[in-house]
Design a protein that fits this description.
Largest sheet: 4 strands, antiparallel
Mean pLDDT: 77
CATH architecture of the largest domain: Roll
CATH superfamily of the largest domain: NTF2-like, domain 1
Order of helices and strands: HHHEEHEEHHHHEEHH
Distance between the termini: 95 Å
Number of strands: 6
Shape: globular
Radius of gyration: 24 Å
Strand order of the largest sheet: 3-4-5-6
Number of domains: 2
Number of helices: 10
Structural class: alpha+beta
Low-confidence stretches: 1-25
């Protein structure tokens, strides 16, 4: 019995020591704005969202659901794959695969770092490069347009009107166009770092998130999509009406 107790105690001691070493290692890796920013960028590339959330202000809170119960958690980015899940559903796997595809070619170069407010804040310049996701979206839309021009049946209208839904739903065809895209998007951004309880963290702005995602900003193209969709829909409806008037 004494041997068992000693064995258990020894095992616990090893676990504690390993945990303490890991904690010191992680702390050492992020004890400056530069190291923290590098850690954040690596975590995006690897989709290590636990580390990403630990060193950014990605988490925004939780929505209240029925009867005041806590509902979905709100995040600035990677919202869908950060929701609690008991098992990996098909939808989760699709979202995860899409996120992996978006950051697959992500690269960055840290530049000047200027600390402010007595070392409590810092401004970090960096250059972020990724696949040009806007180009992939453009090619995807053109592909749908071509299908619609060849098919004047009214059923084709539902396809083009579902473009935003296809983007949000991680459509397989859109992933194919991302794979085929050779264009890159490079953006110079200045991000703000700040200390919270002695830990350096990175502030996520819309500009910075857009750079990480390779200029995939649905809001930027929403009006253009709507105009294209409405125009193609009207053209297809006119052609359909003309053919069926005979």
């Amino acid at each position: 019995m004494k041997i068992c107790k000693k064995g258990i105690s020894a095992s616990l001691a090893v676990i504690v020591l390993l945990t303490a070493c890991a904690g010191r290692m992680k702390s050492t890796e992020t004890d400056t704005p530069e190291k923290m920013a590098e850690q954040v960028m690596r975590s995006v590339k690897e989709l290590d969202l636990e580390t990403f959330n630990a060193y950014t202000d990605n988490y925004e809170g939780s929505r209240r659901g029925l009867f005041g119960l806590l509902g979905d958690r709100e995040y600035k980015v990677f919202q869908d794959i950060l929701q609690p899940h008991i098992f990996e559903s098909r939808r989760y796997k699709e979202k995860r695969r899409f996120a992996e595809k978006v950051v697959e070619e992500l690269e960055w170069d840290l530049g000047e770092v200027r600390e402010e407010d007595g070392g409590e804040k810092a401004r970090i310049k960096m250059t972020v490069t990724n696949r040009d996701m806007a180009k992939a979206l453009e090619l995807y839309i053109m592909w749908i347009m071509e299908d619609i021009m060849e098919d004047t049946e009214m059923g084709a209208l539902s396809l083009i009107k579902d473009i935003p839904a296809a983007v949000n739903g991680c459509n397989e065809d859109l992933i194919r166009f991302i794979d085929e895209t050779r264009d890159t998007w490079t953006e110079d951004v200045t991000v703000t770092a700040y200390k919270e309880d002695g830990v350096w963290k990175l502030h996520l702005t819309d500009e910075f998130i857009n750079a990480l995602m390779g200029n995939m900003d649905p809001d930027e193209y929403e009006d253009e999509w709507d105009r294209s969709i409405d125009g193609s829909a009207e053209e297809t409806e006119s052609e359909y009406a003309r053919q069926n008037a005979w």
